[in-house]
Amino acid sequence: MKIVIATNNQNKLREAREIFSPLGIEILSQKDVSVSVNPEENGITFAENALIKARAVYELIHLPVIADDSGLCVDALDGAPGVYSARYAPEHLLCETLLENMKDVPTEQRTAKFVTAVAFIDENGREITLEGNCPGIIGFEKRGTNGFGYDPVFMYGEKSFAELEPEQKNAVSHRGQAFRKLYDYLKNHYQQEEN
Ligand code: IMP
After folding, report:
1. Cα separation of 116 and 78, whole Å?
2. Which residue of 12, 74, 164, 180 could cross-link 169, Cys pair, CB 3.0 to 4.6 Å?
3. Cα-to-centroid distance, 150 and ligand 1 (Å)
4. CA 193 centroid distance within chain
5. For ligand 1, is residue 170 a contact (CB within 6 Å)?
6. Running DSSP on this structure, what letter comes out for residue 29?
7. Beta-bridge partners for 4
8. Atom number of ligand 1 nearest to Cα 7
9. Mean pLDDT, to the nearest integer, of 112-129?
10. Following DSSP, what letter does each residue of 78-112 receive, concatenated?
């Protein structure tokens, strides 16, 4: 089975391939299907934004499409940056900005979670959204060089997400969970259609 992923983010494309290819699903990029869209993400929930991205691609190609919208919700910041995670600061300053805004927050109040909503639209235009989340702690400094975005300051146990190998991160991450829920849904969805 082939599914197009509605993203221009190479890291998300890589993570989606790492998660779905062992499951026998081929993930095509927007480039693979000659589509270039970058819709305004003006939803107020992760699920709304994921649907906006998936619809923008589906309307052009009418093939199965997935899109995800993710972000970091920090308790001490009342859930910020949340759906505004990408716009919190320039990409290379996301971690520094977060650390600066939390410099006076003690360890026990540094709880946070990564959230992913994934939207799927099938070839007939039927839509669903599913969510995954991963709790952690915001560290006091950047650690590790893997991953992207806020990974170096997101502590999962003793290690930051940026210190984990890709498959270790995928096994526990918000995106890994949401994508695996989607895989379970797809298995049922297409098995039922076959019967
Ligand atoms: P979006 O889902 O492309 O809108 O991404 C939202 C923001 O959250 C981006 O700035 C990413 O850097 C950040 N983000 C999303 N997923 C992750 C992750 O797995 N690790 C670190 N940062 C992430």
Report:
1. 18
2. 164
3. 7
4. 28
5. no
6. P
7. 28, 65
8. 3
9. 97
10. TT-BGGGGGGSS-GGGHHHHHHHHTTT--GGG-EE
